Amino acid sequence: MITIMLPAFNEAGSIGNLLDSFIRAFEEEKRRWRIILVDDGSSDGTGDIARSYQGTIDIEVVAHSVNRGLAEALKTGLIRAVETAADDEIIITMDSDGSHLPGLVFRMVRLVKEGHDVVIASRYRAGSRIRGVSLFRRLMSRGAAILCKLTFPIRGVRDYTCGYRAYKAFLLKRVFTDYGQEIISEPGFSCMVDLLLKVNRYEPIITEVPFILRYDLKAGPSKMNVKLTVKQTLMLLLRRRLGLK
Among 129, 200, 197, which Cα is nearest to 161's? Predict the structure, then answer.
């Protein structure tokens, strides 16, 4: 079974197309799959659109009554996925805005089945392509990635912040057993670095795959505050380096 975990906030313009893309992709691959979508206090009907697919696909919608932010949505979805997944299943995290394309899931799953514990869709591997992202944001993201690599080098990892990842469920269960509700404790988009550093303590085998990032397919503007995200990431790295929580 493949579990796709989607945090979503006001993605009414993209969530239907994304779910339709998943249906087409999985029909071709003939694999068992399900979706856990966390509706993070959306006001545009995102949750209602997702629930309209119930009965057509295996999709569970978990709703936050108010918007709590990406970190809390990711935490809610991961905890639900860990609680309901078998040890030998694979858990995928990805964005719900259409910028992460479903077709890559199967390449990532294959690598997990070949023995990798974590597979990251990386913007910094040969063959990757990025559309619709400003030069400023690219430079800021690249700088943060370099700093992450210098501060906490992880074998096989260049992209510390991309949310498109595949995990062995057993590994995430171990992390959750030890950290509980603190499996994600950082705010905003820096939560992806936080989770990766925690996962890495278990000495997993991690690899990356190039991917096509399509920000030009987003139905609305990005919800990421780049400067704030970089600041939060830098503070996280500093605290971890100093051995602080």
Answer: 197
pTM: 0.89
User: Taking 90 as the threshold, does the pLDDT of residue 125 lie above it?
Assistant: yes
> Can you tell me which residue has the tokens 């096509």?
212
pLDDT, one tens digit per residue, over 46-74 is 999 999 999 999 999 999 999 999 999 99
CATH T-level fold of 2-241: Spore Coat Polysaccharide Biosynthesis Protein SpsA; Chain A (3.90.550)
> Can you list the alpha helix ranges (DSSP code H) found in the chain?
15-29, 46-51, 70-84, 105-113, 135-151, 169-179, 191-200, 226-241
Higher pLDDT, 32 or 147: 32
Euclidean distance between CA atoms 207 and 162, whole angstroms: 13
Q: Is the pLDDT of residue 245 over 90?
A: no
**Cα end-to-end span (Å), the chain:** 35
Burial readout 31-56 (b: 16 or more C-beta within 10 A, e: otherwise): eebbbbbbbbbbeeebbebbbebeee
What are the CB-based long-range contacts (under 8 Å, 24+) for 21-27?
21/101, 21/102, 22/57, 22/102, 23/56, 23/57, 25/102, 25/103, 25/105, 25/106
Residue 219 pLDDT class (50, 70, 90 cuts): low
Token pair 């990431």 in the structure block, residue: 233
